[in-house]
Amino acid sequence: MIEVDGTLKSRLAVWLSVTVTALGALLLVEAYFSSQRAAQRAYDSQLESAVLTIAEAVQWQEGRPVVEIPAAALQILATRHQERVFYAVLDAEGRRVSANLDMRIPAEWRARVAEEGPVWTNAEHSGAEWRLHGWEFDSAGWETQDPVQIWVGHTLAGRQALTAELFKGAVSRFLVMVLVAGLLMLLAMRVALKPMRRLRHLLRQREADDMRPLDARVPEELRELAETLDTLFARQRESRDALLRFTADASHQLKTPLSGLQSTSELALKSDRPDEWHRALAAIHQGAERTSRLASQLLSLARLRHVADGREMHRLDLSALLRDTLFDWAGLDVAQDHDLGLAELPEAPLYVRGEPWALRELLGNLIDNALRYTPPHSVITLGLVQHGGEGKRGGEVELYIEDDGPGVSPEMLQRLHQPFERGGRQDTEGSGLGLAIVDSIARRHDARLTVALRTPHGLRISIIFPLENSP
């Protein structure tokens, strides 16, 4: 029963969406930090420019530094994100020469600038985060060489605003990219799944009895599917051909005895002698018996090969089943002219999983074949041999039947299990279906059928079953 479990398009869309979402999340995180770094570089560069511009404005009068902040320095930091300029010019003693920054510059900051050079630092002041940049100049005037420190800074609001602006632009571009990628993904899925649609249309256009190999160009991903379909078609062709051969052979096998019955009855009807009628009735009875047996075997073979798998397997003692079946056959008239016997069986029960009626049918066909294809007084022996250890899972049990009859030629061994194959013998009443039925039952039970010649003459037929654990 086929159950629809979504579509390939939806699965591809889900996986691609998950992949794009994961990559998009990483890209957005990277875009945010990139925007933050870009805003940091932009404002830090402005602070550096402001320091240099203020340094150019430092003059010395009567031994003291005098600062006249030019308008250019004020315009550097007066952006639309940051409207106020904050600076402080300190002399060598740390006193303020000029400043609009009311933040105290700690002594350790000044010492760090003096020792390490330009310093960048973040600080909190008046409830806001600040970015400060300090720089010390050793040659600030003509009359003295006392150092002067210049500190500039601003709050982080402007940086954050610029970061948000840059990030919004990145998000907008990302959303446009996702939309375009989605459209391209739909187009790509349609193009990628086109070979599957072609293959589906090709199969739908086929007639029910068209079992030819596929004639289609497929991508590498569909090659295994196409080869599997070709293999399935080949098996269907073989099955159909086998069925046609079986039907033809069965028709021929049924036609021959029916024609004989018709001829015998026609001759009897033309005669007025009762003894002729009696002989005709005996011949008709014998022919009807053979035809009935042939029809029964055909039904058994059809049941085994073509009926749906609805079998009920049970745990069976193969030793007991073999013993009971052999005793039933030994009492029949057909076995009176043969030495039908049972080899010594293992003491422990040998359990297999199987259908009782099918295994009885298997044993019956093995015994019937041996009786029909061997001359009177032949010795026929059945037995069981255990392989693979006693009572262990994974072992096997071999059911065999052997006789000292004429056997068959080595070339015929591999064909004996085929329907209507008599091993080249035409001097018996057998129909050639016995081993075919045995082979079908063996396959039904996951068993193997083997046929081997005996020395100096005769046959040995073995069916090897998987062995169940002993209880």
Automatic annotation (TrEMBL):
GO molecular function list: kinase activity
Major location category of this protein: membrane
Localisation per UniProt entry: Membrane
Pfam families per UniProt: 2CSK_N, HATPase_c, HisKA
Residues passing through the membrane, by range: 12-33, 174-193
UniProt keyword terms in alphabetical order: Kinase, Membrane, Phosphoprotein, Transferase, Transmembrane, Transmembrane helix, Two-component regulatory system
Positions of the Histidine kinase domain: 249-469
UniProt protein name: histidine kinase
PROSITE patterns: HAMP, HIS_KIN
Domain of life, per lineage: Bacteria
Organism of derivation: Billgrantia antri
